[in-house]
Specification:
- With about 600 residues, this protein is an alpha/beta fold.
- Among the domains are: about 140 residues, Rossmann fold (3-Layer(aba) Sandwich); about 60 residues, no CATH class; about 100 residues, Arc Repressor Mutant, subunit A, CATH 1.10.10.10.
- It contains 29 helices and 10 strands.
- The strands form 3 sheets. Strands 2-3-4-1-5 form a 5-stranded parallel sheet, sandwiched between helices. It has a 3-stranded antiparallel sheet with strand order 8-10-9.
- A hairpin with a 2-residue loop joins strand 6 and strand 7.
- The protein is elongated, with a radius of gyration of 32 Å.
- It starts with a helix and ends in a 9-residue tail after the last helix.
């Protein structure tokens, strides 16, 4: 680029870790290979207090420091003599830390045509005016080196590991690093060194959430250096409780602290006032702060957050999870209604471990059937079907309403039929349930559940029965959601594939998958499309998007079904390597949650 545009230099600008120095060194190496004489200067904070500190090696020992102009000329002459008529290229790393005299020398080298300068400048740092003049006045080209995109981040990780990395781990690296190449490297190497990232059956898996490595912690801590006490307290609150509303952050830390932290670039404020969301500017700030937060300070911060979020006029499901976690971590017991709401939200938010812990607490403090059903669901979502069955069987005598009974029977259908593969036991449960109510609508619900179980034992034999139930008068929405996936299977295995595909597309669920009927409907659409040879393009596009959504939401059932569908398509397309990678990932996901027994 320099040759083509006849530039006097290049200034690479960007955040710490984006690769400015690496790019500059590569350019210097290439220039040296092309016959140029290269001189490299590393500017530092400590040398910035010394005149010509960056070029000290070019100044004679006897030279007087009070004759700065003479010293500058000597540096320039020394560099020219060293080049001996060949092109001279000077690299200056971290030019924002040059002392004023060294900065003036660098500018003069460009203005006089003595050297081609390649300089790097870190974002967020003030640079000497002579350095700024390199691109403003002296004809150097400023190049902003940005962060990596998501695909670029994933390619970098692939090159580092030389084998596929599971998609949830890819998301963790991409979101935690925010596309910073240095952070990507440190995260991956740290996870490997700590044993959190391991290769199993050709797939790199993140077995647990790794701690931030010491080297990465040092980098992040340096970025947060210089914060005053109030600003640091704000960051502690955000590390435990982001996002906060702007009004809440100001009430907790004061407007001056929030303003200063935003101006320093350590927090971001997004959205419409007055309830704009306040977050840490980088996820790693939170990782580092949490790792060093003391017990007493952490407890005090969590209790302040509990008080703040409890005061909201309305709360979202994720707020209940945060409230419960803060209280438990602070050594306080959440109230029963909060534990039940937070357990349900955690199960739906891909955190069944916390959902189970809350449900167990609720069950022990009088949570009754609701707590038991939440605990059973948390077990089933983790493929712990025997534990789920034990909880459900103990809970059966507590059932009092039809809604409770239907939720119970839906869970038993997943646990006994698909999870434990004991359809005869499910028949016994449904047979027992048939006598629970004399309400004329109750037999319809039982018949639908029995038909679903029978249809998946002998595909296609009951298409007339499912047709009759669906075309009856007043079929309620819940019953229809249970029956329509069954009807898809019965149509397809009766040879009516086009009708089956039309219905499968119409009842295709949204992501995340919430119910057993959702999982069955999605699985059947995949099977009908692949086996009939119809709609492959739509299947591929939808499953690709569903895979990304599933990873974002932590929905193992969706990820498993998507990675179960895509390898079949890749294999049929002759893309065997991709097919194998998807299949390996599918097995990994379904080990965690496999609601319809695909594994």
């Amino acid at each position: 680029m320099a040759r083509d545009q006849d530039l006097g230099g290049v200034v690479l600008c960007g955040a710490a870790g984006v690769g400015k120095s690496r790019l500059a060194r590569e350019a210097l190496s290439q220039a040296e290979s092309d016959g140029a004489v290269v001189h490299f200067v590393q500017a530092t904070r400590s040398a910035a207090t010394v005149a010509l500190g960056a070029f000290a090696g070019l100044v004679a020992a006897e030279a007087r420091s009070d004759h700065l102009y003479e010293l500058m000329q000597r540096v320039r002459a020394s560099l020219a003599d060293h080049a001996a008529g060949r092109p001279l290229v000077v690299g200056v790393d971290d030019a924002q830390w040059l002392d004023p005299t060294s900065a003036a020398v660098t500018l003069e080298l460009v203005n006089a045509g003595t050297a081609f300068v390649i300089a790097t400048i870190r974002d967020g740092e003030s640079a000497p005016d002579a350095v700024v003049s390199l691109w403003k006045d002296a004809g150097a080209q400023r190049i902003d080196v940005g962060l990596l995109s998501r695909p670029e981040t994933e390619r970098l990780v692939d090159e580092m590991l030389t084998a596929p990395l599971e998609r949830e781990a890819r998301r963790w690296v991409a979101e935690t690093s925010q596309g910073n190449p240095l952070y990507v490297r440190e995260l991956v190497l740290g996870a490997r060194a700590g044993g959190a990232l391991q290769q199993v059956d050709g797939l790199w898996r993140l077995l647990n959430r790794p701690r931030v490595s010491a080297s990465l912690k040092e980098l992040i801590t340096a970025r947060m250096a210089g914060l005053d006490h109030a600003e640091h307290r704000l960051l502690e609150l955000l590390a435990l409780g982001e996002p906060l509303r702007l009004s809440e952050a100001i009430a907790l830390a004061g407007v001056e602290s929030v303003t200063a932290a935003e101006e320093r670039g350590v927090v971001s404020v997004e959205g419409s006032l007055p309830d704009a969301a306040v977050r840490l500017a980088h996820p790693l700030y939170g990782e580092v702060i949490r790792s060093s937060l003391g017990t007493v300070r952490g407890r005090e911060a969590r209790l302040r957050l509990v008080e703040t979020v409890r005061a909201r006029d309305s709360r979202q499901p994720e707020d209940t999870i945060r409230l419960a976690r803060w209280m438990i971590d602070a050594g306080q017991a959440p109230w029963l209604e909060l534990m039940l709401a937070a357990s349900r939200a955690a199960n739906n938010a891909a955190d069944p471990d916390f959902g189970a812990a809350l449900a167990e607490r609720a069950l022990a403090t009088g949570g009754g059937l609701e707590a038991a059903l939440l605990l059973a669901r948390a077990h089933a979502v983790r493929n712990r079907f025997e534990d789920a069955e034990a909880v459900l069987m103990a809970a059966e005598p507590r059932i009092q309403t039809q809604d409770e009974a239907l939720e119970y029977l839906e869970q038993q259908s997943e646990v006994l039929h698909w999870g434990l593969q004991r359809p005869s036991d499910l028949k016994d449960v449904l047979g027992r349930a048939a006598s629970w109510w004399k309400d004329p609508e109750w037999p319809q619900h039982i018949a639908a559940l029995q038909l679903r179980a029978a249809s998946f034992e002998r595909f296609g034999v009951d298409v007339a029965a499912s047709t009759e139930l669906l075309t009856g008068d007043g079929v309620e929405a819940r019953l229809r959601r249970q029956l329509e996936p069954v009807h898809v299977a019965n149509l397809f295995y009766s040879g009516r594939s086009h009708e089956a595909l039309e219905l499968a597309l119409r009842i295709r669920p949204s992501i995340p998958l919430r119910t057993l009927s959702d999982s069955i409907a999605l699985s059947l659409w995949r099977r009908v499309s692949l086996d009939s040879g119809e709609g492959w393009d739509e299947l591929e596009g939808w499953m690709t998007r569903a895979l990304e959504d599933g990873v974002r939401l932590g929905d193992h059932a969706t990820i498993g079904q998507a990675t179960y569908s895509l390898p079949s398509l890749r294999f049929l397309q002759g893309r065997y390597g991709e097919s194998r990678a998807y299949a390996t990932e599918s097995e990994r996901q379904m080990e965690q949650h496999d609601p319809v027994g695909l594994l």
